[in-house]
Automatic annotation (TrEMBL):
Domain Histidine kinase: 20-224
Signal peptide interval: none
Protein name listed in UniProt: histidine kinase
Top-rank lineage group of the source organism: Bacteria
Organism for this UniProt entry: Brevibacillus fulvus
Amino acid sequence: TQELLQNSEKLTLVGQLAAGIAHEIRNPLTALKGFLQLMQKNEQHKQEYYSIMSSELTRIEMIVSELLVLAKPQTRYFQLRDVAPLIRQVVTLLDTEAIMKKVQIVTKFEQSLPMIRCDENQLKQAFINFLKNGIESMPNGGEMIIEVRKSADEVEICFIDQGCGIPAEMISRLGEPFFTTKESGTGLGMMVSNKIIQNHQGTIQFISKYGEGTTVIVALPACYQPEEPDQELRN
Ligand code: ADP
Ligand code: MG
């Protein structure tokens, strides 16, 4: 019965996700079709139509590329890594966006941090999602702190923003497919990040005060045996 129950729950989730994807992709597709027809009839506004169509296509592209993370093959390579350089690379990737939004990214690394085992690209994707949400929560700019510290047998990565915050009743909806409060959000970032951190046997905690800011704490198992060879994990 337990197994059956789990299977039927899985089906519901897959069904939910499929319905969500279909809906989210159908909207921009409908728009694209409409503008194609308009262009056929009306030569004058071609330029305008092109730019709307292009942004609709970008939207489909964004949704598909976020979903691809979930569809990655089952075999993942976990390697020993220092968290600090991973964070530095992620910060470099989002530097321009932060500057444009008047957000200053500050990193704080505790001394002699233990290493972690990770799929580097997946983990970076999750960090990018947390950092991006932090930046996007501060429309008038501010400070975005990324603090990395050790605690017991874990490495904690804290993303601390001074943004709009998340109302208490919304916290449980984070990670729900397509849940977004942004005009051009996909509502997929947290779902994908949940999955990635779960793959790493880690946990995510959201602490937020509406109107004051949000702290996201990602805890990952520390790895104290650097002599162990890289491992290939299957599940
Ligand atoms: P998206 O960013 O495309 O909206 P996400 O899954 O990344 O999708 O986030 C879902 C929602 O969670 C966001 O729309 C926002 O309302 C809320 N959220 C997530 N992180 C933060 C944050 N740091 N500050 C404020 N709101 C946040
Ligand atoms: Mg996001």
